[in-house]
Model the fold of this input.
Amino acid sequence: MKLGDARSGKLPQNIVGLGRALRRAGVPIDSQGMALAIEAASIVGLERKDDLHAALGTVLIHRQQDMEVFDQLFSALFRNPELAQQLLAQMLPKVRQGQPPSRKARVQEALAATSKKEGGPRQESEIQLDAAMTASDRHRLQHADFATLNASEFRLIERLVRDIPLSLAPVPGRRTRAGTRGQRPHWPAAMQQAGRSEGELLWLPQRARRPQVLPLLVLVDISGSMERYARLLLAFLHQATRAHPRSVFAFGTDLSDLRPAFKHKDTDRMLEEANTRISDFAGGTRLGASLTTLRERHARCLVGRRTMVLLISDGLDTGAPEQLQSEVQWLKRHCRQLFWLNPLLRFDGYAPLASGAQVLHQHADGMLAVHNLSKLEDLAQAISKLMKRSNHSPISFDRRNSSWT
Done:
């Protein structure tokens, strides 16, 4: 057995190297999964290779298409005792032009990094990957679906989405101020002006409504079908919604409060804390039950029917349709507008046929695509257009913009 003694310090380090190699090959693995893998290996022991293989595969692999990648990397680790140490120093390769790599290419890409043994910090030129891309690379990544990205492209896109703004126009508030336009005179301001000019009223101030920034309630689906989008959208929302009062929750089988995580200014720290707070990542979807928890424990997030709700989900709900119908109706009554951001709009022939998708389609004020960089850049403009139309107007699908208007 070449992985090291279970009682020595080499085993955890080797498993961390295996986990990082898997993540580099495109397998979704977080710190919690690595901790479980180390614990499983210490329990199973190193006497039998097949037992260790089964234990690590159970806690690290959650998709059938990733098993072949795990088998090959696990076998390579047994053949070379120094492989895990080299994997710890792996570097991110440049983004390559072409189609997403196959399983064999993903394994080769992960193992190719072992030939590089850089121990010092990366230079500035090494992390600015987007500057070295060609025009075709930029155009392809601009319109590439997040679900088709390989590991290096995913890391690059995660950095790029942090610079995309979400500038939502302010709306007229309830409070008023003196201005040059309005429907009624602002008499207090008129009296103050007359007092300063010895009783002369040079112009009549008008009562205008103060502009205000709408508070946001963001609900992000972190189920198995949304795992490739959740991390990128959380990184995007963390930077793009800084100017808005916001409440962010993640939902799968349960509701996770991410407001403490979003208080961090650094996006990486936010993602780390969000990872610790989300216990049902890549699981099922029970939006109805999650909205029930929101109503019972966090109803104050909906401020005076002025809150804009951004619901990010594919609508593939596994809960009771009756509960979802009731809770979405409650949410719609207590918010200003409800926008459904759906990655499945990338398909030309998409129609909301699932029961959960039908409920959301019935009550949402609009549905927008959020599956690539181009759609995220146009998101603010698309939301502004949807806000201008009446809440009771019929919803139709615009195939040119991949949105429901």
